């Protein structure tokens, strides 16, 4: 596991973007696993700027997103499809058909989980999977629980996650209570994993994930078993590491 300690969010974002850009340059038709939330916004801004300058191209890139709220359509302004369009896809030369996000309106979420898992498998899984980390150590929407979920599945969000995400909605009551998420198994099949973490409220989760026991009660702790993980954090998020 490599850890980059950056002084603040902007430096974290630049560092993470350079790692993704290097992946695209090395393999222009790579499969990028992408995340939403506040952590990767700055990373995407850098990638958009470098694409506009002509330094990197997404023309051959395929993307698979980690997750989507269940019950939200792709044009709902809090859906993860909408987030990806507005933060990245609409501003770079990626081919829209090459972008994939679970369908939050699927009638049968179990079938949608299987479809999405098969799709990610058919692409050969991610060359590079970008992750944020929840305050409770979740990755994707794999919440603390008794076992590591393997494949894309429907998740009941925990109170902690609903509370954390309420800042994007009118109230906590408006936050969807379920999401479709890649499983831990799906994430671990990525060849490289890049985690971006910022802010003091992540310090405890980061410390447990990196230095604590490997347990599904801290889903990100499984990353200790992956052979190629890079964590890029600001000083506050890494302040709990010994
Ligand atoms: C987003 C995702 C989540 C977030 C995590 C951190 O696609 O899967 O695991 O990465 O909740 O969110 P932020 O970055 O908003 O703190």
Low-confidence stretches: none
Distance between the first and last residues' Cα = 15 Å
What is the radius of gyration?
Answer: 16 Å
Shape field: globular
CATH architecture: 3-Layer(aba) Sandwich
Overview of the molecule:
The chain is an alpha/beta fold and 242 residues long. The chain has one domain: Rossmann fold (3-Layer(aba) Sandwich), CATH 3.40.50.1360. It has helices at 9-26, 41-52, 80-87, 109-122, 159-165, 184-188, 203-211, and strands spanning 2-6, 31-34, 62-65, 67-69, 99-100, 128-131, 153-156, 178-181, 192-197, 229-234. A seven-stranded parallel β-sheet has the order 1-10-9-6-2-3-5, covered by helices on one side. β2, α2 and β3 form a beta-alpha-beta unit. α1 crosses α2. It is globular and about 45 Å long. Bound molecules: fructose -6-phosphate (F6R). Fructose -6-phosphate (F6R) binds next to loops.
Task: Note the topology.
Layout: E1 2-6, H1 9-26, E2 31-34, H2 41-52, E3 62-65, E4 67-69, H3 80-87, E5 99-100, H4 109-122, E6 128-131, E7 153-156, H5 159-165, E8 178-181, H6 184-188, E9 192-197, H7 203-211, E10 229-234
Parallel strand pairs: 1-10, 2-3, 2-6, 3-5, 6-9, 9-10
Antiparallel strand pairs: 4-8, 7-8
Helix pairs in contact: 1-2
Fructose -6-phosphate binds next to loops.
């Amino acid at each position: 596991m490599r850890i980059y300690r950056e002084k603040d969010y902007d430096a974290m974002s630049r560092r993470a973007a350079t790692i993704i850009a290097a992946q695209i340059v090395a393999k222009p038709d790579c499969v990028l696993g992408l995340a939403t939330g506040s952590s990767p916004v700055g990373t995407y801004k850098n990638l958009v700027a470098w694409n506009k300058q002509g330094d990197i191209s997404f023309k051959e890139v395929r993307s698979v997103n980690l997750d989507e709220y269940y019950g939200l359509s792709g044009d709902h302004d809090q859906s993860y499809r909408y987030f990806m369009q507005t933060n990245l896809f609409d501003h770079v030369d990626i081919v829209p058909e090459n972008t994939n996000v679970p369908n939050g309106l699927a009638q049968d979420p179990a079938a949608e989980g299987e479809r999405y898992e098969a799709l990610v498998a058919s692409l050969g899984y991610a060359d590079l999977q970008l992750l944020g980390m929840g305050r409770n150590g979740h990755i994707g929407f794999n919440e603390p629980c008794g076992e590591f979920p393997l494949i894309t599945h429907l998740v009941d969000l925990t109170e902690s996650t609903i509370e954390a995400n309420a800042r994007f909605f009118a109230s906590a009551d408006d936050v969807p209570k379920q999401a479709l998420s890649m499983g831990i198994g799906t994430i671990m099949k990525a060849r490289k994993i890049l985690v971006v973490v910022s802010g003091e409220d992540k310090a405890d989760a980061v410390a447990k994930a990196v230095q604590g026991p490997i347990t599904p009660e801290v889903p990100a702790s499984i990353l200790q078993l992956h052979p190629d993980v890079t964590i890029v954090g600001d000083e506050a998020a890494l302040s709990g590491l010994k």
